[in-house]
Write a structure and sequence with these properties.
Helix content is 76%, strand content 2%.
Length: 285
């Protein structure tokens, strides 16, 4: 793997760090298996690309993409909280609906914005992405240390006790899902602008990538405090992308770019199995 490929991996890893942070909020903070992510990532990309290609400035287009992602998360939360639809099914329903919505937004399967001005037109993708990720990390670390953020974390630990203390569990869940999918849509908007296009299938497997990043970071750092857990998501995303790029460049094992999903599945499986094997061996010794 040469320097250019390494920089490319870091570039994508920084953008996908936002997806990892969003996935962490739903899966770890409120313990909600949210599959909306696959749709909201593409939603962010399609909204930003459609607006930018129509002549709108990049910054407002990105902000509108974030808002669209938040609405998608709220839809999932509403189905689960208001109508008691299983959390997993709520996410699948929203994700399925978003496929058609994204096609409607773009008007076609893909949009090219490579010749349009974006957030990265006059800035380095790595530098600007790093700044955005750091700011997002600091804001989330502050938010989850506030009383409101602590209440949101409490519903994931024990919703019944939280409800007994006067926390509106349903409302908190909807807000958390809106926040999660807003961040994921933000990542989608940045990804589309960095790559110069948005495609209807670009969100496929996003949830797996996000989970892989979270699990890799957690397995390596074993964070106990929220600030370290958020940092682990970012580090996990970078390591995941570098590991994938490294594996695809080992020509002796015959892997190709089409094997990306296979590599991801194997990497996640190893991340989950190795800590358990370590615990088992320690007990036997």
């Amino acid at each position: 793997m040469n320097l250019l490929q390494l920089l490319g991996s870091i570039e994508i890893g920084l953008i996908y760090a936002l997806i990892a942070l969003g996935v962490y909020i739903s899966f770890r903070i409120i313990d909600f298996p949210d599959l909306t992510v696959d749709g909201s990532f593409t939603l962010g990309a399609s909204v930003a690309a459609a607006l930018i290609s129509s002549g709108y400035p990049a910054l407002p287009s990105t902000l509108i993409a974030i808002l669209a992602g938040m609405l998608a998360g709220m839809a999932t939360g509403y189905l689960n909280v208001k109508w008691n639809i299983l959390g997993l099914l709520s996410g699948i329903l929203t994700m399925t609906a978003l496929y058609s919505i994204n096609l409607r937004i773009m008007g076609k399967p893909n949009i090219a914005i490579i010749n349009d001005p974006t957030l990265f037109t006059q800035h380095s993708v790595i530098v600007l992405s790093a700044i955005i990720v750091i700011i997002t990390f600091l804001v989330l670390a502050w938010f989850f240390s506030t009383e409101f953020g602590l209440s949101m974390r409490a519903i994931g630990i024990n919703p019944r006790v939280s409800s007994a203390y006067g926390i509106k569990v349903g409302t908190m869940k909807i807000i958390a899902l809106a926040l999660s999918n807003g961040i994921v849509a933000f990542g989608g908007a940045l990804f589309a602008q960095s790559q110069g296009f948005a495609d209807i299938s670009m969100g496929t497997g996003t949830i797996i990538v996000g989970l892989a990043s979270v699990m890799i970071g957690e397995s390596l750092l074993g964070p106990k405090k929220i600030i370290f857990a958020l940092a682990a998501c970012i580090i996990g995303s970078l390591l995941y992308r570098i590991a994938i790029a490294f594996a695809l460049n080992i020509h002796d094992i015959g892997l190709q770019a089409s094997d990306l999903n296979l590599l991801t599945a194997c990497l996640v499986t190893m991340t989950m199995i190795l800590p358990k094997l370590k615990t088992t061996l320690e007990r036997r010794l």
